[in-house]
Design a protein that fits this description.
This protein is mostly helical and 244 residues long. It has 11 helices and no strands. 38% of the residues are buried.
Length: 244
């Protein structure tokens, strides 16, 4: 993520219940989330799944580590998808990144996961992003993620946004953004920043919820596939755990 300042010139995903694989363009992410988030919340409302996902055990429906990771991330991103007006260009459009990042950096941190939207799109996205981070902090506490791994969540994300903000203020940022997208790499679009951090935090929650405080000890107690632990530790996305 932090190689954004180095410009390099050079010469399908199925939706349904499968999470996105990398590399995925911002429009594809938003399209998939527009389908998957309401589908997931409908299943929760119908009582088909234990909610939040971090409360599941291996014996529950979708109680595997892949599903808990994937669904925890959906639970966090739902707030962003709820923002009225769906002006997602603020999250994915190069021309609006400085505007969006200014709004986020201006937003005062809060501890709420119940959103109260204002009608101003940039402010509402900032509120929603913080709500998602707070939800992940809540889930981390429920699943007993080690405090050292969950501390400073909002502060650390703010640092990432501040760094990305500097990148967008440099000359030629929009052109470099297009170069990175064309080469299958992620420029510091706000959507990617959110998705990356939510993915990382959701992985910690899934590990604590399903494997417990010690992955190695849990592997001895539960009949898990022999390669699951190293695959999980190496995975960057829930989809990396799918058999292909």
């Amino acid at each position: 993520m932090f190689d954004w300042f180095h410009s390099k010139k050079h010469s399908d995903q199925k939706s349904e219940k499968k999470p996105l694989r990398r590399f995925v363009g911002p429009d594809v992410i938003l399209d998939e989330l527009g389908k998957r988030v309401p589908r997931y919340l409908d299943e929760v409302d119908q009582g088909k799944l234990i909610y939040p996902a971090c409360k599941r055990t291996l014996s529950d429906v979708d109680g595997d580590v892949f599903s808990v990771w994937d669904h925890t991330r959906l639970e966090a991103i739902r707030y962003v998808m709820m923002v009225p007006g769906h002006e997602f260009e603020l999250l994915s459009g190069p021309a609006r990144q400085i505007e969006m990042m200014n709004a986020y950096l201006f937003q005062r941190p809060h501890g709420e996961t119940v959103v109260d939207f204002t009608g101003n799109a940039t402010a509402d996205f900032a509120i929603a992003i913080l709500a998602g981070l707070n939800w992940l902090t809540h889930c981390a506490q429920l699943s007993s993620v080690h405090p050292a791994k969950q501390s400073g969540t909002i502060r650390n994300f703010r640092k990432v946004v501040a760094l990305a903000h500097r990148w967008w203020l440099t000359d030629g940022a929009a052109e470099r953004c297009e170069e990175l997208l064309a080469s299958g790499k992620e420029p510091p679009l706000m959507l990617y920043l959110i998705w990356s951090d939510y993915t990382r935090l959701s992985k910690q929650i899934a590990a604590a919820a399903i494997f417990g405080s010690s992955i190695n000890r849990s592997a001895k107690l539960v009949a898990l596939p022999a390669d699951l632990i190293p695959r999980f530790e190496a995975a960057q996305e829930p989809a990396d755990l799918l058999n292909t």
